[in-house]
């Protein structure tokens, strides 16, 4: 597994992702500056980390979607390469057209940082192979604009094609209500691309990779990826 | 010098916050009338905020050294050795006045300023905390201020990428017209790679880095050194606007630059911007500084020397660089998209000379700008001692159950979840204990060691007895660190008071500093950094004296840290420490009986140390399964918080014979902790305590879904939780009132 982590000037969880990948794969990922025009030779997985890419004073991720390095990411994804966008990374993937829909401000208009349960919708993708289908995992959220929205047609396609990766849920797996703090449609916390090789998700698995710091439910995602290539 | 500038009149001098005798001192110092730019520079350097002129002689009495102290007060932040070649760098600073005028930007730039102080020293920020004080919840402006300040603190820290892991929020009508926003930042650096403001070497380039200079924040520090009046709203343009993205770039660029070996000296541009940073770098290094202002990156045209020297535009740094590394440095800043400009150089004449397009705008003696700032021994009167209030002399308006419900659901003691869930407290992936406990615990990358962090003070105690209150603030912070198992290391103090020109206010400041000094000496807890905020008054009404104490402790192994949550059913609940049921100035007396009276609980520092050391040893031996210090609300509130955190109830014994129930349950006697331990360890703990001369009293047993206070009606944890968690969101969802 050869991983690369993009670094936009306002990325702030690139080190967290690098730590998680190092823990799962045994070696540090390449850190790729936003102004680069290519990914390192042989990259299997590219990660777009959390943060505020270029300040995000405009629409989150809108400028980053047009960064020089993103052409390389698009080409990588078209070739079937794996791409994972977390939080701001998800916003950038959506803005770049690699994933459908949009992420708007949380329904209460406040930033939310809290522990969050997720339901794993399918366990047969490169990202979730170490989870079980329907498994409830505990990760955490930290975002101001994570309210996923898509038009009914798109939603129908996502649901019909099994492209919802994770849903917000309560500890017992029940959906809706306070478990969905940001107001996302269909409780969507993460989605796949058509070929299931691109995943965007709002919560942070990279901050749950250590029993001493909140738990290890996020580590499995990276361990699964480590085995993917 | 330019004739286009305003004439120096007594009115102009007064509007710069300079007193007639201070102006006379300027005339004597330079032997002529100052130019307009020079007047501005003096007002920036000699205001209370930058010069500490009222507090300096008292601050000198604080203990500032210790075997682990690498850098005490006087630099951008304090530095303490934490072993293995690592150092912790931290400081707390106020941003009170701007936050009242423009809560979001005021709070945001307060966070930005303190983060900059920490990374200026070469440290990567790893945690932020804050202490917020607002007016009465029913004051028409309070909700708006809470909402704006919390969003501002979060908005800056979340984007910058530092976990905000702890702090406090308090409400009291005495803050109606002057809220407090005290922000603390904590960073980690290598002990042998700390950077300082002191410049060395003549003829070296002075380099400006970061964002461009605009007209924002001109006279911010002067505003922070005056009382508020109704016209203060008009000062909104003096509040700076924060750009956390630019700050993040500045952080990364500075750390990269420092690693490249290019930096001789570095100083962030905070209060009084370019003036203060340039003067400090020169004065500390016994060097002169020449600035050529036409080289300063600006975002507006036509700025005068006066405006550039007083601008408080954010996210800017000044450095002295090794000349041969200039290209390396420029490349790093260009990579991060930040401005980089050589704006002057160091000289050997000890003068601070400012030129604009070749025209001399200021020529002042650099040492005297800082060192010979006025220093006052202001008259002060001691706060009269209040009488002790004996618990049995006060009738209890509510029974224990109702009083506990009222306290845990009060604005003062309810859960702050609504606040800290807006702060990213998990970023960097090292937050072992998040907000809600006695102290936050953040692991040092790689572990197993970690830092315990807290910010605390009890203003109502300080109001009643500044000396005891000052002691208590330090003891409380020390206790918070101890309660998670950490060895307390050092303190940063943020002293918030009213107008020091009033002898009774000056008496509060003096009393609190004396108390802080006494406690810090007794607990080997030196003060390594700090900040003073005076003139927190509106229309003649001062805030409660609020000397916020930020503190840092060290844990050898974060896995051994204790939390407040009850872990198992059937464990013994033990209180460590003596109590007589001290009800004076307690939360119960204030919030339940409606009286803000009496003497505060006295702090016996030797007992404090003995009890704390005992509790810490219980934690490191793995005997204590949960620990919580007893503070606001007393024993009953402490146990309630432990039960709520662990979702396990407790049955508590009735108060001992002779004790007044509300004194027993809600008294705020100091130096106490509630600990839980297994049934088989209980007797051993109590024996060990007795051998150390410490009172340890079994007060009950954990278990069940309710809290049972003696013979009184039980309280379901669900009910307790609803009261505790409910107040803040309900309050904030209330109708918007525009003041």
Automatic annotation (TrEMBL), chain A:
Molecular function terms from GO: ATP binding; glutaminase activity; phosphoribosylformylglycinamidine synthase activity
InterPro entries for this protein: Class_I_gatase-like, PRibForGlyAmidine_synth_PurQ
Residues of the active site: 87 (nucleophile), 204, 206
Coiled coil: none
Primary location group: cytoplasm
HAMAP family recorded: PurQ (MF_00421)
Official protein name in the record: Phosphoribosylformylglycinamidine synthase subunit PurQ
Gene: purQ
TrEMBL record, chain B:
Quaternary structure and interacting proteins, as annotated: Monomer. Part of the FGAM synthase complex composed of 1 PurL, 1 PurQ and 2 PurS subunits.
Limits of the PurM-like C-terminal domain: 202-356, 568-705
Superkingdom as given in the UniProt entry: Bacteria
Native organism: Hansschlegelia zhihuaiae
Record localization: Cytoplasm
Name of protein: Phosphoribosylformylglycinamidine synthase subunit PurL
Enzyme class of the recorded protein, top EC level: ligase
Positions of the Phosphoribosylformylglycinamidine synthase linker domain: 16-53
Coiled coil, from the record: none
Catalytic activity: N(2)-formyl-N(1)-(5-phospho-beta-D-ribosyl)glycinamide + L-glutamine + ATP + H2O = 2-formamido-N(1)-(5-O-phospho-beta-D-ribosyl)acetamidine + L-glutamate + ADP + phosphate + H(+)
Gene, per the UniProt record: purL
Positions that bind substrate: 94-97, 116, 240, 312-314, 533
């Amino acid at each position: 597994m050869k991983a690369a982590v993009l670094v936009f000037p306002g990325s702030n969880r690139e080190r967290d992702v690098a730590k998680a990948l190092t823990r799962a794969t045994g070696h540090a990922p390449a850190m790729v500056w936003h102004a680069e025009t290519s990914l390192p030779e042989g990259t299997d997985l590219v990660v777009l980390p959390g943060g505020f890419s270029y300040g995000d004073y405009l629409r989150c991720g809108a400028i980053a979607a047009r960064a020089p390095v993103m052409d390389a990411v698009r080409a990588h994804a078209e070739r079937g390469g794996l791409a994972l966008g977390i939080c701001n990374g998800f916003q950038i993937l959506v803005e770049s057209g690699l994933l459908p829909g949009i992420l708007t401000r949380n329904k209460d208009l406040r930033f939310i940082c809290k522990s969050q349960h997720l339901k794993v919708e399918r366990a047969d993708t490169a990202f979730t192979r170490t989870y079980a289908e329907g498994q409830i995992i505990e990760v955490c959220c930290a975002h101001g604009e994570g309210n996923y929205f898509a038009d009914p047609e798109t939603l129908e396609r996502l649901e019909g094609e099994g492209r919802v990766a994770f849903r917000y849920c309560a500890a017992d797996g029940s959906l809706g209500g306070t478990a969905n703090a940001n107001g996302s449609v269909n409780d969507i916390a993460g989605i796949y691309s058509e070929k299931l090789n691109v995943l965007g998700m709002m919560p942070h698995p990279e901050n749950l990779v250590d029993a001493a710091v909140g738990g290890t439910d996020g580590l499995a995602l990276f361990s699964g990826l480590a085995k993917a290539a | 010098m330019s004739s286009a500038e305003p004439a120096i009149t007594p009115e102009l001098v007064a509007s710069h916050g300079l007193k007639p005798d201070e102006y006379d001192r300027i005339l004597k110092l330079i032997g002529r009338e100052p130019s307009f730019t020079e007047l501005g520079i003096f007002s920036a350097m000699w205001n209370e905020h930058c010069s500490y002129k009222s507090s300096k002689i008292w601050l000198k009495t604080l203990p500032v050294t210790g075997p682990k102290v690498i850098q005490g007060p006087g630099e951008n932040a304090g530095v303490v050795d934490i072993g293995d070649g690592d150092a912790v760098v931290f400081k707390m600073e106020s941003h009170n006045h701007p936050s009242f005028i423009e809560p979001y930007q005021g709070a945001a730039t307060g966070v930005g300023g303190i983060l900059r102080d920490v990374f200026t020293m070469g440290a990567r920020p790893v945690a932020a905390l804050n202490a917020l004080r607002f007016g009465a919840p029913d004051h028409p402006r309070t909700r708006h201020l809470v909402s704006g300040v919390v969003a501002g603190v979060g908005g800056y820290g979340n984007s910058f990428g530092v976990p905000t892991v702890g702090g406090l929020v308090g409400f009291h009508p005495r803050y109606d017209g002057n809220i407090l926003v005290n922000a603390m930042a904590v960073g980690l650096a290598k002990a042998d790679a700390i950077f300082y403001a002191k410049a060395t070497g003549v003829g070296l380039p002075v380099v400006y880095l970061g964002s461009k200079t605009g007209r924002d924040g001109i006279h911010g520090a002067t505003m922070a050194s005056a009382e508020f009046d109704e016209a203060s709203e008009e000062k909104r343009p003096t509040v700076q606007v924060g750009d956390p993205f630019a700050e993040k770039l500045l952080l990364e660029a500075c750390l990269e630059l420092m690693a490249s070996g290019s930096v001789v000296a570095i100083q962030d541009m905070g209060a009084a911007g370019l003036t203060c940073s340039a003067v400090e770098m020169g004065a500390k290094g016994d060097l002169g500084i020449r600035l050529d202002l036409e080289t300063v990156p600006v975002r507006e045209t036509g700025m005068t020397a006066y405006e550039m020297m007083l601008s408080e535009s954010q996210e800017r740094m000044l450095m002295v660089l090794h000349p041969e590394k200039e290209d390396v440095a420029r490349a790093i800043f260009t990579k991060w998209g930040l401005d980089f400009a050589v704006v002057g150089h160091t000289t050997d004449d000890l003068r601070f000379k400012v030129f604009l397009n070749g025209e001399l705008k200021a020529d002042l003696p650099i040492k005297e700008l800082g060192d010979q700032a006025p220093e006052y021994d202001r008259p002060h009167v001691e706060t009269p001692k209040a009488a002790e209030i004996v618990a049995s002399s006060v009738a209890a308006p509510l029974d224990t159950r109702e009083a506990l419900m009222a306290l845990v659901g009060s604005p003062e003691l309810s859960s702050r979840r609504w606040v800290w869930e807006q702060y990213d407290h998990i970023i960097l992936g090292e937050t072992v204990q998040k907000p809600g406990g006695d102290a936050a615990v953040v692991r040092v990358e790689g572990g197993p060691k970690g830092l315990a962090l807290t910010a605390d003070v009890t203003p109502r105690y300080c109001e009643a007895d500044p000396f005891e209150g000052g002691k208590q603030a330090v003891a409380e912070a020390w206790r918070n660190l101890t309660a998670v198992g950490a060895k307390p290391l050092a303190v940063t103090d943020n002293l918030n008071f009213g107008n020091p020109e009033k002898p009774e206010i000056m008496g509060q400041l003096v009393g609190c500093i004396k108390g802080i000094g006494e406690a810090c000496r007794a607990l080997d807890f030196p003060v390594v950094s700090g900040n003073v905020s005076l003139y927190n008054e509106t229309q003649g009404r001062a805030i409660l004296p609020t000397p916020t104490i930020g503190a840092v402790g060290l844990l050898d192994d974060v896995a051994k840290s204790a939390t407040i949550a009850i872990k198992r059913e059937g464990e013994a609940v033990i209180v460590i420490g003596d109590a007589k049921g001290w009800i004076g100035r307690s939360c119960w007396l204030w919030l339940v009986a409606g009286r803000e009276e009496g003497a505060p609980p006295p702090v016996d520092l030797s007992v404090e140390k003995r009890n704390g050391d005992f509790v810490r040893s219980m934690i490191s031996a793995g005997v204590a399964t949960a620990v919580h210090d007893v503070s606001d609300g007393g024993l009953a509130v402490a146990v309630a918080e432990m039960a709520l955190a662990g979702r396990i109830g407790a049955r508590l014994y009735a108060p001992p014979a002779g004790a007044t129930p509300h004194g027993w349950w809600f008294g705020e006697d100091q130096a106490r902790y509630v600990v839980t331990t297994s049934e088989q360890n209980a007797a051993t703990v109590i024996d060990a305590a007795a051998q150390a001369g410490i009172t340890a009293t079994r007060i009950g047993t954990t278990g069940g879904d309710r809290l049972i206070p003696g013979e009184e009606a039980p309280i379901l944890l669900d009910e307790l939780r609803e009261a505790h968690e409910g107040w803040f969101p309900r309050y904030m969802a209330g109708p918007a009132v525009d003041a």
